[in-house]
Amino acid sequence: MATHKLLLLPGDGIGPEVMREVEKIVGWFRKRGVGFETETDLVGGAAYDAHGAAISEAAMDRAQQADAVLFGAVGGAKWDSVPYAVRPEAGLLRLRKDLGLFANLRPAICYPALADASSLKREVVEGLDIMIVRELTGGVYFGEPKEIVTLEDGSQRAVDTQIYHTHEVERIARVAFDLAKKRRNKVSSAEKFNVMKTGVFWRQVVTRIHKGEFSDVELEHVLADNCAMQLVRWPKQFDVIVTDNLFGDILSDIAAMLTGSLGMLPSASLGAEDPVTGQRKALYEPVHGSAPDIAGKGLANPIAMIGSFGMALRYSFGLLDEADRLDKAIANVLASGTRTKDIAAPGTNAVGTQDVGDAIVKEL
Amino acid sequence: MATHKLLLLPGDGIGPEVMREVEKIVGWFRKRGVGFETETDLVGGAAYDAHGAAISEAAMDRAQQADAVLFGAVGGAKWDSVPYAVRPEAGLLRLRKDLGLFANLRPAICYPALADASSLKREVVEGLDIMIVRELTGGVYFGEPKEIVTLEDGSQRAVDTQIYHTHEVERIARVAFDLAKKRRNKVSSAEKFNVMKTGVFWRQVVTRIHKGEFSDVELEHVLADNCAMQLVRWPKQFDVIVTDNLFGDILSDIAAMLTGSLGMLPSASLGAEDPVTGQRKALYEPVHGSAPDIAGKGLANPIAMIGSFGMALRYSFGLLDEADRLDKAIANVLASGTRTKDIAAPGTNAVGTQDVGDAIVKEL
Ligand SMILES: CC(C)[C@H](C(=O)O)[C@@H](O)C(=O)O
Ligand SMILES: CC(C)[C@H](C(=O)O)[C@@H](O)C(=O)O
Fold this sequence. Notes:
homodimer; 364 residues; Isopropylmalate Dehydrogenase; ten-stranded mixed β-sheet; 12 strands; IsoCit/isopropylmalate_DH_CS (chains A, B); leucine biosynthesis (chains A, B); IsoPropMal-DH-like_dom (chains A, B); 3-isopropylmalate dehydrogenase (chains A, B); EC 1.1.1.85 (chains A, B)
């Protein structure tokens, strides 16, 4: 039987505690005969403290060898003033870039049982199910020049550069259209073509791919600022939203916050399929961050992290039955009222991080 | 008595109809002896149709001569495929740049009477009063290179460049801190210092200005993506938010949409004070766009445009009593239930654009 190599990178803040719960789930599947091999390494502030870098070369090698990386979260005030090149986030950005994880899939789902946790009115978010497809290895995150220079008069100038190439926009557009076909068949492409040349270009390429390969899918173009507004006004108008790295960062966070289920939302970052083996590199992480304020207190909701492992079962290993089984166990535990503080129903007792993990294992 | 020169640029879509209502208000003040001189010119798609440019040189000259510009809105599907350099938005961008309007003030206020129009829960937005201070003449909107180039293999590369200089960040930070002192004394500075060098730089300069000149004002730094989330989660945590041109575009739109009062929100774009005359160039415009879908139907809410004229009374002409009087007239008309469709209370009849303008004049 095939053995799936998992690299666990818990990172900082609540990363380690939510990752421990995933290990329980992995353990359960392993006992039932699914071949998982796990290794664990450091990333982010934890890696900086140990090695002076946000991820070590050894950890990068392991990530390259792994069939999937499970990533917790990185960052925290403790490392706010470390040099830019070794800040915690650099570890995550290097993983994305070096593994070629260009497609970031961020579902924003509002669980009916949790709709009241949203700051939006129930009718606006109940049943919401949208997918943000964010380009993850290009744009302003990686373009050069990216620098702060001191000028002759002593003042300074800072520069970032947003660059997109044809193939980068083509491939992310294809991911979005492919996903839409399995969903409600609509893609909204967000950019600022009225002020950015990369926006003009984005719109052109997406339009061409649509016309040539996916003319049966509905496509609309929306300005990124208007998209943010529309997400707040009536998010159910969207199915799949495809957008660049920076707009995707913001729009996916808005979408996640709408649902009231931030501690519930997983994400997948996928590379290109190898034309020979059909394999693709992949990293799975919760949408939430490292939440330093509640770290170490057993308060964190592990479901986003566990759901991220569920996405790995589905997208990396083709273990669809196992993925369904896990999703169902999560849903049952939620329904039973075993919930952490962030999603506890009014008048019920919140349980700890470990209790939720244990309950899901039991339910499995 | 001093005569104030106003240039009216109605623009496209609902721009002309909401501007007509402002003219009534200006007329009322003129009859009561306040010296206003108005000129009107074209901008946006309307200017393109007439002159092949998004604003003519003659209109730019008039804008330079005016004490304040009142701007309606620009754009619409009709001009989606005109050449990039003459697209409707280019007129607005040139006005901002050539008049040096670096400080964009966008209040987001939730009128209690309208709180139910928000998609957010009443308790989340009722009484909301935040001010977004957006840098308006720098960043990715204007940096070069900004181009699409065709490479040797026939594929293309698109580039935009975000640039900030020391003095640009210093002056917008001062505007934000000054405003905060007259409000609830708190500034939240939003950037992405974890991925952008302009973010690192922004944070450094804001911190320095704070330390040197405004240490009595509370300052917090917040990541732009988290700021978007927090605006959705609990917007009342903010007082003044200061941010760059692109983040400001998105964050101010989110803030506006939260209030449920999009058709109500004015904005001011201000230049630097002339050290000799104390005068500053200024442009006032509603936060909403050209809304082509309802243009020409008499449905548009003119209050954002009229309120923008109120900001001109206050910020450009120091006519504080007149500004208060206008604000009060608007509030009374709202309270009386004379409202356009976007803000009509359930079960009441909506009135037209002109009715609201007439009612405000009557109330004055
Ligand atoms: C941690 C940070 C570098 C990252 C990003 O900006 O991409 C995060 O906000 C995210 O969305 O995954
Ligand atoms: C019309 C457009 C160029 C403009 C911008 O992006 O600045 C608008 O969205 C705004 O916020 O004023």
